[in-house]
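Per reviewer request, we include the raw input and output of the structure prediction for the construct analysed in the revised manuscript.
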Amino acid sequence: MTSVKWMMKGREFVHCNCAYGCPCQFNALPTQGHCSAVGAFEIEEGFHGDTRLDGLRCGMIAAWPGAIHEGRGQVVPIIDIRATPEQRGALLRIMSGEDTEPGATFFQVFATTFETMHDPVFADIDFDVDVAGRTARLNVPGWLNARGEPILNPVTGAPHQARINLPDGFEYDVCEVGRGWADTKGPLTLALADSHAHFSTLHMTGSGVVH
């Protein structure tokens, strides 16, 4: 860890291949025995040292052959093409777990599980997320297309609301649970359909989630 301080506040959308609710959120094994996921976040307010990060977006495509904590994962980091060279470097450091206390954020924890970190993608990230409404749209041309929706009651068809609260979590404090669909291209080709998604506000620093 270095002395560079950082902070970000924003909103995120994460979608994986697990059943609604995702057992990984409860330290259980993934539904299908392996994990495939996409995600994105938009920074409403943030900095890394003297570099401001306000308004920038990032994403990732990731996959592990088993449970995340068993390692051997792969990741494709995606950085907003609008970012300056300084901002790109800052975002990649944060997403790689640098300048962060061990175990403090999901960026740092996940970084320890990746065996292969593919070259970062610098691209337009079309992203919109409504945390309370449990909806999201994510498109990175040539790389990733995903959407999130509420879970529907199987009898009435009405939107179903469920939340996960992790008071000591390393990603969020509370998330809204929904479902998602995603298709990806590139070195990690995924096809996810009607499986777990969550939507949350982010507030974290190099010392962890601000609860």
